Amino acid sequence: MRVGIDLGGTKIELVALDERGCERFRRRVPTPQGDYPATLQAITDLVSEAEAHVGMSATVGIGTPGSASPRSGRMRNANSTCLNGQPLQQDLEALLGRPIRMANDANCLAMSEAADGAGAGAEVVFAVILGTGVGGGIVVRGGLLNGVNGGAGEWGHNPLPLPTADELPLPACYCGRSGCIETWLSGPGMAADHARRHGDTLGAAAIVAAANHDPDCDATLRRYEQRLARALAGVINLLDPDVIVLGGGLSRIERLYTNVPALWAPFVFSDCIATRLVPARHGDASGVRGAAWLWPA
Questions:
Q1: Alpha-carbon distance 290 to 6, whole Å?
Q2: What are phi and psi of 126, to 5 degrees?
Q3: For a Cys-Cys bond, which of 50, 109, 121, 290 suits 127, CB 3.0-4.6 Å?
Q4: Span 136-181, pLDDT tens digits
């Protein structure tokens, strides 16, 4: 039995998979905001609940925001900032009484979708999480790229390419820089852009829901699409992936898959663009499934 956990900024989700990859248990709870000890306890409680339900112990894989430093083992670059500087893997191994495996949440998405999802059979897959934060993962010929610094795919903390005059001054990012892709393309980034331009305090979900009848919300979504096109054009110029798979809450915006490819051509250094933009086949479950499969069969 494998347990996978997706540790997100707003929710923690667990899935238990049997040896055939069939789901035996699933649970989602809110992420304790800014509370590291409570986050550890929530994860521990979920694992205990899952194992009680299936009647056996399980391997545990966890997809996290940010990543563990290869030098110190402590978390870094997580938009859930209470994790940064913490020995998350060591603490959870002590609480659970077993070794666990951890990977960046976007890497888990990439592995899941490259294995049997929307990127199955593709040579190069770039997977994107568009949610509370923004991240990326890269799979080439079935293998995950981690990089010598453990940061391959950290797309969300590159600057948004070619900022326009009305995008200045650049918004500050929690990482200490300004104008990061995440500040524009995360759910909070979309909401902040809407508030700056239109004065309304709406969350991303409300903006998307109203876009078909509210001109201001539609305008916000159009700016979002144009920025996503610019940002993904840089990925195409660098990696030239067969497919770009979108996951996370904002990946459910259906119009992205038509509008963004129609906008990225002026920013791509090629006379043809065969890269496909597709939603994650496994939807919200892809990251948590990828975490479960961090342990081999």
A1: 9
A2: -110, 120
A3: 109
A4: 999 999 888 989 988 899 999 999 999 999 999 999 999 999 999 9
